[in-house]
Amino acid sequence: MDIEKLKGRLDFLREAEKLKDVLRSAHTSSGRTESTAEHSWRLCLMAITFGDELAGLDLLKILKMCVVHDLGEAIHGDIPAVDQAQFPNKSQQEHDDLLLLTRALDEPLRADILALWDDYENARSAEAKAVKALDKLETLLQHNQGLNPPDFDYAFNLAYGKKHTSAWPIFQTLREIIDQDTEAKIQTLNR
C-alpha cells in the first residue's frame, strides 16, 4: 500500500467535490438549479438503464466516461448548452482544468481519466459516441422535467444535440419520445 498515492487520490476527490457546487442552467422538478454532479449521476443511471440496448459496448468504460465527462467543470463551471457557441475555447479550458484537477493523482490513474475525457470529447470510440448521445438526451430530459423559469426556451431542445442522438436506433427512439414531450410542453405554454 502506497500512502502517498492514497493521499494524492484523496486530494483529487476533495477537489472533485467542487463539482457538487457547479450549477447548470437546468432546473430540477422542484425548481432548484441542477448541479453538474447531479447531471453526471443521472447520466450514469441512464447508461445503466439503457445498457442492455448497447450490445457490444463496454458498459464499465461508458460509466467511467459518464463520471469524468464534465469533471473539468469543477474548476471554471458549466457553460450552458445555449451559450456554448460563444465559447470556442470551451474544450481547451475543460482539458486544462482537468489537468489541474488530476495533478495529485498517480500517473496511471491520471492518464486513464485524461484518456477517457479525451475519447469522450473527440467522440473517438463507440462508447464515447454513446455517452455523447446520452449526455444530450439527459439534458433534454431535464429541461422537460424541470420546473423552469417562464422564459425558458424549450424550442432550443428540438435541435440540440441531433448529430449525437442519431448514432443508434435506441437514441433516435429516445430522442423522438423526448421531442414529443418537448413539443407538448411548448403547446401547453402557448395556450
What does this structure look like?
The longest helix has 21 residues, at 169-189. The protein has one domain: Hypothetical protein af1432 (Orthogonal Bundle), CATH 1.10.3210. 61% of the residues lie in helices and 4% in strands. The protein has helices spanning 3-16, 36-50, 59-68, 73-76, 90-101, 107-122, 126-145, 162-165, 169-189; strands at residues 23-27, 33-35. It is globular. The chain has a two-stranded antiparallel sheet. β1 and β2 form a beta hairpin. It has 9 helices and 2 strands, in the order αββαααααααα. It has 191 residues and is mainly alpha-helical.
Count of helical regions: 9
**Based on the structure given, which CATH architecture is correct?**
Orthogonal Bundle
Portion of residues in helices? 55-70%
Reading off the top of the CATH hierarchy, the class is best stated as Mainly Alpha
The pLDDT mean sits at: 94
Beta-strand residue percentage: under 5%
Shape: globular
Distance between the termini: 64 Å
Reported for the largest beta sheet, the result is:
2 strands, antiparallel
Work out the radius of gyration: 17 Å
Q: State the domain count.
A: 1
Order of adjacent strands in the largest pleated sheet: 1-2
Q: Pairing-aware structural class of the strands and helices?
A: mainly alpha
Order of helices and strands: HEEHHHHHHHH
Name of the CATH homologous superfamily: Hypothetical protein af1432
CATH fold annotation = Hypothetical protein af1432
DSSP summary, beta strand count: 2
The low-pLDDT segments are none
